[in-house]
């Protein structure tokens, strides 16, 4: 069995009919993927109506200049009480994981205080939880047609409206989402 390429710095798009409602029409910013497993952050499903300002209040962080309407994303089903910020590569802290030159991932409270103070990354999205796979698990799921890899266009994460990210990412691949089927076939 051949192994798919490592997906760090790419977007992972769910295929229609993936079979898990938590992952229907999701866009995942892949932050880590190697022989030990994979970690990504869902970038288009809100964590209810929780705003970043609400989250900051829970953490006793003065929201400062943080935009009022910015929703927290449901980053995935793993550790939903743990916070993450996927952000533009212009921001770097000691705890930041650089994902090539595409974006960074920071999970310390420092980034929230920097965002509130206007010293954070230029573009960002926050999430609670992450999506994780054990060694070889994502590779197997991709071979079973549950996921589609797409270029890691940061503008899809940060500039495209949340509800349009999935279709936009497919569109950039030249795939019309209306023509996708939940049924797979064999040649």
TrEMBL record:
Transmembrane segments: none annotated. It holds the Pfam family DUF179. InterPro entries: AlgH-like. GO terms for cellular component: cytosol. PANTHER family: UNCHARACTERIZED PROTEIN YQGE, UPF0301 PROTEIN YQGE. Belongs to the UPF0301 (AlgH) family. HAMAP family: UPF0301 (MF_00758). This is UPF0301 protein F3168_14225. It comes from Sandarakinorhabdus fusca.
């Amino acid at each position: 069995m051949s192994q798919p390429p490592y997906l760090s710095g790419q977007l992972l798009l769910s295929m229609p009919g993936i079979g898990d409602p938590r992952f229907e029409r999701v866009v995942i910013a892949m932050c880590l993927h190697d022989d030990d497993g994979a970690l990504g952050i869902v970038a288009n499903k809100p964590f209810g109506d929780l705003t970043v300002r609400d989250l900051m209040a829970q953490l006793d962080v003065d929201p400062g200049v943080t935009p009022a309407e910015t929703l927290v994303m449901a980053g995935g089903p793993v550790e939903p009480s743990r916070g993450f910020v996927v952000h533009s590569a212009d921001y770097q802290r000691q705890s930041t994981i650089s994902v090539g030159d595409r974006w960074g991932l920071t999970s310390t409270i420092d980034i929230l205080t920097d965002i509130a103070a206007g010293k954070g990354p230029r573009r960002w999205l926050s999430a609670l939880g992450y999506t994780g796979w054990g060694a070889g698990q994502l590779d197997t799921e991709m071979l079973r047609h549950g996921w589609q890899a797409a270029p890691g266009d940061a503008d899809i994460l940060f500039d495209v409206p949340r509800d349009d990210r999935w279709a936009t990412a497919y569109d950039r691949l030249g795939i019309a989402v209306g023509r996708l089927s939940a049924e797979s076939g064999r040649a």
